[in-house]
Write a structure and sequence with these properties.
Number of strands: 51
Strand order of the largest sheet: 16-1-20-19-18-17
Strand content: 35-45%
CATH class of the largest domain: Mainly Beta
Structural class: mainly beta
Number of helices: 2
Radius of gyration: 27 Å
Largest sheet: 6 strands, mixed
Helix content: under 10%
CATH topology of the largest domain: Tachylectin-2, Chain A
CATH architecture of the largest domain: 5 Propeller
CATH superfamily of the largest domain: Glycosyl hydrolase domain, family 43
Number of domains: 3
Length: about 700
């Protein structure tokens, strides 16, 4: 695709549209998400053994089937400086409280909920498991919570520890607050002993087999506000790869729900597709999980929604080789079949020996949610991107364990390779057509485009031309909605692999160039805005008054090709964790850079220059559109204790966005500077809680 400038009529339309959105930003109403979240209760069963303050330790006979268990306790939680043992079963588990380093967010992200004095007391239960094929032997699987997330951090609470054989879960006062997915089982002796802390635990009961938790029906469902920059409820819960679809007037967001930033299940893939949807983008519904983990071997990877044979489906991969050797999975069987016949087979994995691996899919019962696993393996690739192309052909882009373009008459096998080398695979590639152009995007860096009328071998690399649209989102998904609008959704890395959800609207120029802007329906609501300055002619700083806010200003580009402006965002520690948004209008470049009070930040690289937008830290954009004439910049800054820093979302001239995350930055002040570029009408509005 040849580099072209966006034509003047397109610029005028986009600038006007950008101005029209400003009224919405200030007066917009908050989005509402209706959650699945409810309390849980455990009933039935007879306790195999019980302990109380009159009997602080004892032994019990473990039944033959010890694959699941439940422990119910009454605990008096206290904030102590030292580590306190609450319950111990030697060689099996320990329940403790301790003080977490407020700066250590590894795995559990306990500092998401600090006490008023900044301390982070923690309740944690560690279960000792014996994973298969683990040369290091047994491993502890901890689950826990920062006490500050409880309404009353100190005092008596009902604590339940539940091991189902698949999940290891902590409940406090009937709320599910943390869990992980097991690999292996604890080793119980025929006789086991346990001990409780009599000063803090008034009662403990253990049940074999475990009691199955039941949801408590609520008359009024729980809700959450704002979908933009959203993360699931909890201290260590994040959004991973996003897959979107628009079907029968409803926009669906499937996302890999992940705790601990890819470190659940001992880092082997403890994530699965959760599901949100909306018909108006103002009220969202959280549905039951589309692909829950139901067995120890399940490690679910990226896929895409699609409709085939009038059925709403979700493809996804099984990354089983993360746990078991390849020869013990069904991958050799599938590749042998393909090599013999020239097309893939169809295998019901619940009827064949070996651990399932490769491509599978689920089907919705009602065309909205209620997904059921087909248990059919249709291809050995482990991140299938299935779609119906504009000509009505069933196709798939293969990723992770395979590559290229494939085609079939049926989803259930029969897939033939029609282009073995393109696209080259990766995390997840994705096809869409918009008007007269076809596009294929990769998970982090790939981008190819061609005219829709051109042969399939005419895709050109847009990254090499500096014409990609990566903006900090990871594994973006593109979906056409009503009125011909296109949305791009992805996740921003905050906790390693995983972070917050971001949805932007896409824009397209007549030459096929793609850009992005904020979607007006979901821009976070703000309080009344105020003007900081009508015009700035020299370096000027302002207090923000809030750590989460919307900043807008107008830019006069000037005539100097090297002219640039910078907005430097500072916290209490000065420039140590500062972030600068820098725009060079005539050079058509913008960047996030390491903030400096004394001068502009150094030049960063764009994707095609070797930079890394997917890291969402310091990087540059090139070939901006709309910056050769007066334009508006909008910057959303979102701070949360859970993030442990600030997320930045910048929109430039209504045609390009760029997103970054700054750990340890809580903005208090903004410093503006420019050379040969005018900054006018600087306004700020605090985000509503």
């Amino acid at each position: 695709m040849k580099k072209k400038l966006v034509n003047s009529s397109f610029l005028i339309v986009m600038i006007i549209g950008n101005l029209l959105f400003s009224e919405y930003v200030v007066k917009g109403q908050a989005v509402k998400i209706v959650l699945q979240s409810t309390p849980w209760h455990f009933s039935g069963g007879s306790a195999l053994s019980a302990l109380s303050t009159q009997k602080t330790n004892g032994t019990f006979t473990v039944p033959f089937d010890s694959s699941s268990f439940t422990i119910k306790m009454r605990v008096n939680l206290k904030v102590e400086n030292s580590k306190i043992n609450l319950l111990t079963i030697p060689g099996v588990l320990n329940l403790t409280t301790f003080q977490q380093d407020p700066k250590d967010r590894k795995k559990q992200n306990y500092p998401a909920y600090p006490m008023p004095d900044g301390s982070v007391p923690v309740l944690e239960a560690a279960l000792t498991l014996y994973p298969p094929f683990e040369p290091k032997g047994p491993r502890d699987m901890p689950i826990g919570i920062p006490l500050a997330m409880l309404k009353k951090p100190q005092g008596e609470h009902d604590v339940v520890l539940h091991f189902s054989g698949v999940r290891w879960t902590l409940y406090v006062d009937n709320e599910l607050l943390d869990n992980d997915f097991a690999i292996g089982y604890p080793k119980w002796g025929k006789q086991s002993s346990w001990e409780i802390n009599p000063s803090l635990v008034s009662k403990a009961e253990i049940f074999f087999p475990g009691l199955e938790p039941q949801k408590v029906a609520l008359k009024k469902p729980r809700t959450s506000n704002e979908i933009e920059y959203w993360t699931p409820q909890g201290h260590n819960t994040w959004v991973g790869d996003v897959a979107t679809f628009y079907y029968q007037g409803r926009y669906h967001v499937f996302y890999l729900f992940d705790r601990r930033g890819h470190n659940s299940k001992f880092g082997k893939g403890g994530h699965y597709f959760e599901h949100l949807s909306t018909t108006d983008f103002k009220t969202w519904t959280e549905h039951e999980a589309a692909t829950p983990i139901e067995a120890q071997w399940e490690t679910i990877g990226t896929g895409v929604p699609f409709v085939f044979d009038n059925k709403f489906c979700l493809s996804y991969g099984l990354h089983t080789t993360r746990i078991y050797p390849r020869e013990q999975t069904m991958l050799p069987l599938q590749w042998d079949y393909y090599n013999k016949h020239g097309f893939t087979g169809s295998f019901r994995y619940d009827t064949i020996p070996g651990y399932p691996a490769g491509s599978t899919y689920s089907i919705s019962e009602d065309g909205i949610s209620k997904f059921n696993k087909t248990k059919i393996l249709f291809h050995p690739c482990e991140n299938p991107s299935v779609y119906i192309d504009p000509e009505g052909r069933l196709r798939m882009l293969a990723n992770y364990g395979a590559k290229g373009t494939w085609e079939s008459k049926s989803i259930n096998g029969g897939w033939r390779s029609i282009n073995p080398n393109f696209p080259p695979g990766g995390d997840c590639t994705f096809f869409f057509r918009w008007g007269n152009y076809d596009y294929i995007i990769g998970g982090f860096t790939g981008f190819w485009t061609k005219p829709a009328s051109a042969p399939e071998d005419k895709f050109e690399n847009g990254v090499k031309a500096g014409l990609d649209f990566y903006n900090g989102m990871n594994v973006p998904a593109v979906t056409k909605i009503k009125d011909g609008r296109y949305l791009m959704a992805g996740w921003i890395p905050i906790a390693g692999w995983g972070g917050s959800l971001v949805i932007h609207e896409m824009v397209q120029s007549p030459d096929g160039r793609i850009g992005t802007k904020w979607m007006k329906e979901i821009i976070p609501a703000t309080e009344k805005e105020k003007t900081l300055a009508k015009e700035i002619k020299k370096t000027t700083s302002f207090d923000t008054g809030s750590s989460s806010f919307l900043l807008t200003f107008d830019v006069e580009p000037g005539t100097d090709l090297s002219g640039k402006l910078g907005s430097l965002f500072l916290g209490s520690d000065g420039e140590n964790h500062a972030c600068e948004v820098q725009v060079s209008p005539k050079a058509k470049r913008a960047q996030y850079g390491k903030g400096q009070i004394s001068n502009f930040s150094s030049a960063e690289k764009s994707l095609h220059e070797g930079g890394s937008p997917s890291g969402a830290r310091n990087y540059a954009l090139e070939n901006l559109a709309g910056t050769d004439k007066p334009f508006t910049v909008r910057i959303m800054v979102k701070y949360e204790d859970k993030f442990g820093g600030s997320q930045f979302d910048t929109e430039i001239a209504g045609q390009r966005t760029m997103i970054a995350f700054r750990p340890d930055l809580k903005v208090q002040k903004i410093l503006f500077r420019s050379d040969a570029t005018g900054i006018k009408n600087i306004k700020i509005a605090t985000l509503k809680n």
